[in-house]
Structure formats: C-alpha cells, structure tokens
Description:
With about 425 residues, the protein is of the alpha/beta class. About 40% of the residues lie in helices and about 15% in strands.
Amino acid sequence: MTSTAATPLEDSSPQRPQMAHLTAQLDAMRAQGTHFKLRVLEDAQAPVCRYDGREVINLASNNYLGLCNHPRLREAAIAAIAKFGVGSGAVRTIAGTMRLHMELEEKIARFKGVEACVVFQSGFTANAGTVSSILGKDDFILSDELNHASIIDGARLSRAKIKVFRHKDVGHCEELLKEIADQPGHRLVITDGVFSMDGDIGPVKDLCDLADRYGAIMMVDDAHASGVLGRHGRGSVDHFGCTHRVDVQVGTLSKAIGALGGYVCGSRDLIDYLYHRARPFLFSTSHPPSVAASCIAAFDILENEPERIERLWTNTRYFQEQLRQAGFDIGGRSTPRSETPITPIILGDGRKTMEYSRALLEQGVMATGIVFPTVPEGKARIRCIMTSEHTRAQTDQALEILTSTAKRMGLLS
C-alpha cells in the first residue's frame, strides 16, 4: 500500500540578510540570559499539571477561580458545538453575530450593572480598539505609567496627545489636567483596575473624582480585577462603588472567567458606536459558539458560587505572608506592594530571574520569570498567582521549593 503520509519539506531556506537584525537581537538576549523558550502545557490548566514533561505545581496561570476546566463550562461548550458547530463563519457586522453572542453581552451588562456590553476577541483588542476609536488627534489621554501594553498601543493608534502620570499619583494626574485645561479636545483618564505585574489596585475612586472635576472621560481596564475584586467578582469599579462614574469598563474573559475574549461595558451609545467604529470588532471573526457558551456558564458560577472568591483570597493571604516571613521581596520597597493574588518575587537582575525560573521548573514549580521590556530594567521578578483551587498542601510544597531553591542559588539568605 502506498503511504499517504506527508513528506516534510526540505529545509532549504537559509536566513536572508534582510532579517539578520532579528538574529542579532536574539543573540543579545541569549548573552544577557533573558532569552526563553515557550513552555508547553500537556494537560488541563490546573493547580498541578504537566509542563514540558514534568508534573509541576502551577503558580503561573491566570485561572484565578479554576474555571478553565470546570465541568459546567465543558458541558456548555460541548452542547454549543453540537447545536451550532465549531465556528461562527464571519465578522459580527456581516453574518457572524449568533444569538449566543448577544446572550453573553446581555448577561455581562446585567452582571456589571450597565446599559450595554460588546465582546471583543481578546482583552488586548478590547482596550486597543476602544481607545483608538473614541479619541482622535485633537484629544488628550492621561494614562498611568504602568498601564497595560494594550492601553499604550490603543493610545498611540488614536493619535491623541498622550500625557503619562506617575504610577497611582492622582496629584500628578491633576497637574497634567490643569496644564491642558484651556486647550480644545476631549480628555480621557485611564487606569488599570489591578496592575498586572505588581498586583496593586488602581486609585479608581480618586481618578473618578478628577474626571468629574475636569470633565474627562473615565476608563478602567479591569482585566485582573474581573472575578477577583468587587461583589461576586464584578471588578475594581464595583469594589470602589463607581459603576455609574466610569464611562468605559474593560474586562476579560480569558483570566478568571476561564475562556477567551475581552469586553467593554458602558452606555448603550458607547457600545453602538464601538459596533460601528472599533476596528478589531469590525475586522475579526466572532468567537466560536463554544467560547460564548462557556463564558455564559462562567458568569452563572460567579453569581452562584462566591465561595470560590473567598478561597482565592484565603490562599493569597497565606501564600504572601509565608513568602514575607521567608525573606522574599514581594513589593513595598522599591516597587508597589501587591494587594491581589498577583504576587511578584522581586529579584532585579534579569539573568538571575530566568535562571531561578528554570531551576524552579526542574524542582516542580511552574513560576514564570518576567524581565525587560515587560517590566523596567532592574525590576525583573518571578510572578506568582494563587488560585482558589490550590490546596494548602500544594501551597506549602511550592513555598518549600521556592525557598530552598532561592537559598541554594544565593538569592535568599
């Protein structure tokens, strides 16, 4: 019988000189010790799972509430595939808006207590697409210096004038607002609800006060606050009681919700405008029905199982206290102190950080090294995240590996 197996293409394409600058930059990363290879997950995202052939305690996942492999989300996804197929077939504005997409947007809007919601393909596109579409070259954006990259990219794409205020420095933000008080154009004040690298909470209420005082649009990216802060995980905006003072709320479906996507909440006119002008929404195929269905199931769980969030915070407080007692720098000296399950172990040196991350994986802990340009030079860290599903035994074992490995490498006395 003749084999029908595909024959690998012969690798006959050497590096062209036009691309040599990329190789040079990769070589520089290797020399600095900050180059990495992707780690491959071989089973479900869980507190204990297999990466690169090793069973490890997973401290690197954004799966805050353990919903990535929750039975109800699995069942919802399978049922949606059986009924609607695996794809939507088009962008939302042509033929790709399914009833499930509308049900999800309506459910999120009710959950957040706002008029309307639009779902994007990712949290990144939700931020970038919104900022770039609601402002133009005659407008101003006032942005926290540690805001997420998607906010930065959206601000650049908008062509608005960008004013960056010092991290969580409301006074500095007001100084910048005063500087442009007599100039024409709209103003947008924007902050993360929870900052993704340090885990500290943005000053949402105080910035709302400024926005009201100076007539600015108020926007909050609640990606890492969704499912973590506020009543039943409604986010930092709810946490501060500012639901009706924040004009644009951005959230994610890819972290605590356990699936994929991002969303924007606000007035009905805002959402209708984004339907017409947000380029990622206009030019990207909509979510598969299985994703929309699993997200609907996740919001049901948020509303009916508040004990998941309670477990998340119990685990977080214990983990962070044990790290402090062991002598780790988890913020509060030269960097912000975490106020959420995001727990940075600050090491400073990029090479040592990546070496420590690799050593931890070998010992059975998945904890990712974060180096420049994701964080500033000299602020490299291991970023750990607790979930509601880690047991005390798993946490204690991870703490022992973190501590013993750090001492063996001279990172901890």
